[in-house]
TrEMBL record:
One of its GO terms (biological process) is tRNA methylation. Interacts with TRM9. CDD domains: Trm112-like. Belongs to the TRM112 family. InterPro entries: Trm112, Trm112-like. Coiled coil: none annotated. This is Trm112p-domain-containing protein. Pfam families: Trm112p. GO terms for molecular function: protein heterodimerization activity.
Length: 123
């Protein structure tokens, strides 16, 4: 399923696409909210792996403006809950992810992204 925790790790790997290929941009995204159990320790453990600016830009593009533009130095419970919400509770069910560099389209259907490349697109 496409959640922002996954999206924050995905980049385009089409042949020759090596720069400006992250983050993939959502188009026609259908979002579903699904509650998930809050685990502050899990969210704290994710923090070093999260690309903050791409996450914030993506959440804004999807209409969610909870996160501050700059990564706070201190993560209180309220901020951890906001991160939990955007990373684990927002599910992209349908739509597309598009590479900002080469414009390759990765379709999303039933919450599953198709990241497979055709033989001529493989680096």
């Amino acid at each position: 399923m496409v959640r922002l925790i996954t999206h924050n790790l995905l980049a385009c790997h089409a042949k020759g696409c090596t720069t400006n290929n992250f983050p993939l941009q959502f188009k026609d995204a259908e979002i579903e909210h699904r509650e998930a159990e809050f685990n502050p320790d899990f969210i704290r453990g994710l923090l070093p792996k999260i690309e903050w600016k791409p996450l914030v830009d993506t959440t804004k593009m999807l209409g969610d403006t909870l996160l501050p533009d700059e990564r706070p130095e201190m993560m209180d419970d309220d901020l951890l809950k906001m991160l939990h919400h955007v990373l684990l509770e927002l599910h992209i069910e349908e739509g597309q992810m598009i590479c900002p560099n080469c414009s390759h389209v990765y379709p999303i259907s039933n919450g599953i992204p198709n990241m497979l490349l055709s033989e001529h697109e493989i680096a």
